[in-house]
Amino acid sequence: MPSRLSIRAALACAAALAMTAGVAGCGSGSGSDSGSSKGSEGSAISADRCAENKAAGKITYLSGYQYQSSVSILEYIAAAKLGYFKDLCLDVTLKPGTGDTAQNTKLLASGQATVSPISEQDVIQARANGIDITGVSSYSNSGLDILMTNKDITKLPQLDGKVVGHKGYMPATVRAMLVKAGVKYDSLKLVKQGYDPSVLPRRQGGLAALTGFVSNEPNQLKAAGKPVTVWQPSDFGVPGSLGAMAVNPAFAAKHPHAVEDILRAALHAYDYCTADATKTAECVGYAADLSGPTYDKKLNTTIWNTETQIVKDSPTPGQPRGGIDTANVKGIVDMLRQFDIVSGEVTPAGAEEWFDGSFVKNIHDGDKLVWPAP
Q1: How far apart are CA 68 and CA 191, in angstroms?
Q2: Are 163 and 189 in contact (CB under 8 A)?
């Protein structure tokens, strides 16, 4: 089975270019400056805690893919542009990621990055491969990976024996969904497709289904007047994650309040960017400013609205926004073991120790984000 981590760069790169045309090229970088701040240093924090955060030094946020308007990216851009990091005495530099999850995990583990969007599944796979990072937050147990079919498919077992396209690998969550739905998985004719989702409505090569990302290809096809049926693994009880974040564990151990306040500023910005359409447009504009004139604001607004709606509809249960559901982590481990993506040596109990939900809990009073900081 191809490695999710090893092929992530090519997959995310081509998919995101098709989706936004918002950057000059994958891996090229589009600027690292966090932009002008509207904040006043220390205005939302006590003097003692401000001094602590200053002592943490330069903090590097590495995005999942460039400055795309996804959750776990746009709110960090907004936190910088709105001055929320400065309000909390945090010296945060934004860096655009290439979409290579494996690279992000290595940069985190080495300390070259401080905090980065890393799915819970990828945290588990990284730790299973000896890469030392800690998961600290997740907005939802519903992930981005989905399966699309044309409208004539009304039940997934109708796919038995048919051609199913993927972009380099079959996501574990999609495979688990198909198996749960009663599809004869070994009967499927799995083929690697490119990054043009129109191959599905054109039924190219007899294609009956195609994997994708919930905020990407379905929105492209809908805008082109070719809507498809979207099958989400979470609807079948398959665990995933959306907007998950990870941190360098050495930094977290030395500067726990700084980690809390990074998340605090981002969550405060998340609330700002989701308040209404005007503020959403403002936040997407910040991402466009960092990305260049070809950034597709309309499509990126749709990406943000799609993903935040998932967060609204499927928050992590029993947690404040961003809290980690340990039962979901255990479910992901079981799924990864089922398909031999991780070895049997990776246990649910062991994987739970690779996550620390205390940072998010410590910045909330019940479900309410504490702002300003103590």
Answers
A1: 28
A2: yes
DSSP string covering 1-31: ---TTTTHHHHHHHHHHHHH--SSSTTS---
User: Tokens 């306040």, residue?
Assistant: 261
CA–CA gap between residue 166 and residue 2 (Å, rounded): 12
SS3 state at 102:
helix
Q: How many CA atoms lie within 13 A of 292 on its CB side?
A: 14
DSSP state of 355: B
Distance CA 117, CA 244 (A): 6
Paired tokens of 281: 């447009």
The whole-angstrom distance between residue 220's C-alpha and the CA centroid of its chain comes to 19
- Give the pLDDT band of residue 39 (cuts 50, 70, 90): confident
Q: What is the C-alpha to C-alpha distance for residues 368 and 185, in angstroms, rounded to an integer?
A: 44
Contact 157, 238 (CB under 8 A): no
Question: How does residue 38 score in pLDDT terms, banded at 50, 70 and 90?
Answer: low
Distance from C-alpha of 191 to C-alpha of 43, rounded to nearest angstrom: 55
